[in-house]
Specification:
Chain lengths: 411, 154
């Protein structure tokens, strides 16, 4: 049986998150000292060579983001942590922030040094009250210890932290919308490009990463890029935190090397199906994710391997459904969620979301056949994806296309 | 505490808007923002009333109407929905005697829905003010509200 391999979760339940000294005793903040002894360019090279990809869902190379932000002109640069975790089925960032807030700070400080940013922001959703509390304590303690602030470890490098609260908007988890919100505005998406690395927060070059992504940085600095790259798969190196929920015996969070299979996650880690029910479907990556059936159970989990199967890894959310569950019903719930979270800025999304739900209603009223409905859903969500500004309008196509591929007959 | 004192703890920068609005709203026993609050924030941040209003209207955690002492947020994510969240929502409505988005006349309870609360391993879940209640079923829900009501009678 395969065991967990913990990097982002390595200190979970090993120390009291309210005590910075406990974290230091576990070897915490050693990676910063090591990093400060190197040139910023060396840190950027290390992260690039590690092959680390964004753990928020998009899977873009973290090293390249560092590099681009570093190359952008300007003396003022920012580091932003996307802690607006809201993708249904995802709770990995909450676990890290509640149980090991210091690993996040450490990863962010190292990243700030790499791009020479003197200000770091954590944008965290307002509902995560415990995470907010834990991070406030951690930041204050780190400040008292001189780990945050001026002249960190006598290196001459300064960085300060600020926590910014979200207020109940899923869309603000999208990086450019998050930046708008962080600036104190409505969460309406910006046009891309320019990307944050060029023009982000307050119009300055900004490095923005997910909580889990930052939490890998101290490990990469300590153990080296080559070691990190040796973990996981060639195209998806390292580890990933998977959050498993639904009809399994032991729902929860599990960090393993990339390349593990869905079957191993469900049966070895999550204890198998609850009440001996039969596996029916899993939704991978959240609402903006994909439905898969048993034919994907043995596919190695990775950004590219899943893509080949028409699925996404996304945030690492795995929602497991047993035979008694309805694909149609879950689709309806996902579409209602999107409709509620659409900001209304662009027409295709604002008008398209209710349109998709109207099709579902027509099926329920027996005015439309399910096969036809699915084709119409696909058609509508495709033009939404092509004409919407931000990932929200581009999302419904993901579950719908996967249903067409895997559950056309069961829809 | 006076709202002016609360606001003055923040630097006068527009990017502090959401943090300030949270602090002011939390200071109100009925968990909402008044017209006066919005004017005060606008004045402090040197911006217009309408821009503050626009921000407040956008974010679902802010309210312009008085809410109950206990704000109940029921998770409406697809996963909680699958794990019987809809029935629980109905039971909560029945126990409290109001519908979604409403507040009881005695200003004790408000029922709202929320996007994924990030406790999916323990679905279905709800939040009452700052506390998360997990693995809910009929029995647990009845207990939660019974103990709140008992507490209030003391």
């Amino acid at each position: 049986m395969i065991s967990e391999y913990r990097i982002a979760l390595k200190n979970i339940d090993k120390y009291d998150p309210n005590q910075i000294d406990d974290y230091i005793q576990l070897g915490g903040y050693e990676a910063i000292k090591k990093a400060l002894g190197k040139k910023p360019e060396e840190i950027i090279e290390s992260v690039l060579n590690s092959g680390l990809r964004g753990r928020g869902g998009a899977g873009f190379s973290t090293g390249l983001k560092n590099k681009f932000t570093n190359q952008s002109e300007g003396l003022e640069k920012y580091v932003v942590c996307n802690a607006d975790e809201g993708e249904p089925g995802t709770f990995k960032d909450r676990i890290i922030m509640e149980k090991d807030p210091h690993i996040l700070l450490e990863g962010m400080i190292i990243s700030a040094y790499a791009i020479q940013a003197s200000k770091a922001y954590i944008y965290i959703r307002g509902e995560y009250t415990e995470s907010i509390e834990k991070l406030e304590v951690a930041i204050n303690q780190a400040r008292e210890k001189g780990i945050i602030g001026k002249n960190i470890f006598n290196s001459g490098f300064n960085v300060d932290f600020e926590i910014k609260l979200g207020a109940g908007s899923y869309l603000c988890g999208e990086e450019l919308t998050l930046i708008e919100s962080l600036e104190g505005k409505r969460g309406n998406p910006r046009i891309k490009p320019p990307f944050p690395a060029e023009k982000g927060l307050f119009g300055k070059p900004t490095l923005i990463n997910n909580v889990e992504t930052f939490s890998h940085i101290p490990y990469i600095i300590e153990k080296g890029a080559d070691h990190y790259k040796s973990l996981g798969t060639e195209k998806s190196p390292g580890t990933k935190v998977f959050t498993i929920s639904g009809d399994v015996i032991k729902p929860g969070y599990y960090e393993t090397e990339m390349g593990i299979t869905l079957r191993q996650l469900i049966y070895d880690f999550a204890g198998g199906m609850k009440n001996d029910k039969e596996f029916y479907a899993a939704i991978l990556g959240g609402a903006a994710g994909t439905f898969v059936n048993e034919s994907v159970l043995d596919t190695p989990m990775g950004y590219d391997t899943l893509k080949e199967k028409g699925a996404v890894l996304g945030s690492g959310a795995i929602m497991v459904m047993s035979k008694e569950r309805s694909i149609f019903d879950m689709t309806q719930s996902i579409l209602e969620f999107f409709k509620h979270e659409s900001c209304g800025k662009c027409v295709p999304c604002r008008v398209g979301m209710p349109q998709l739900l109207l099709l579902m209603d027509r099926v329920k009223r027996n005015e439309l056949g399910r096969v036809e409905a699915l084709d119409l859903l696909l058609y509508e969500s495709e033009y939404m994806a092509k004409s919407s500004l931000c990932p929200l309008g581009q999302s419904p196509i993901l579950p719908i296309k996967s249903i067409k591929q895997y559950f056309e007959k069961q829809f | 505490m006076d709202n002016r004192d609360i606001i003055s703890k923040f630097e006068q920068r527009k990017d502090n808007m959401l943090n300030i609005l949270h602090a002011v709203q939390n200071n109100n026993p009925n968990n909402y923002l008044t017209t006066e609050d919005l004017k005060l924030v606008a004045e402090y941040l040197n911006t217009t009333y309408s821009s503050v209003y626009g921000v407040v209207k956008y974010y679902s955690m802010f309210s312009l109407k008085p809410r109950g002492k206990y704000v109940i947020r029921v998770c409406k994510s697809p996963l909680c929905h699958m794990m019987d969240g809809d029935n629980l929502m109905q039971e909560i409505k029945d126990i409290i005697g109001i519908g979604l988005g409403e507040t009881t006349d005695d200003l004790m309870f408000s029922i709202e829905s929320s996007e994924c609360l990030g406790h999916c391993a323990h679905a279905p879940v709800m939040m009452i003010n700052e506390k998360v209640y997990k693995n809910l079923d009929s029995f647990k829900i009845k207990n939660v509200f019974q103990s709140i009501k008992l507490n209030e009678q003391k």
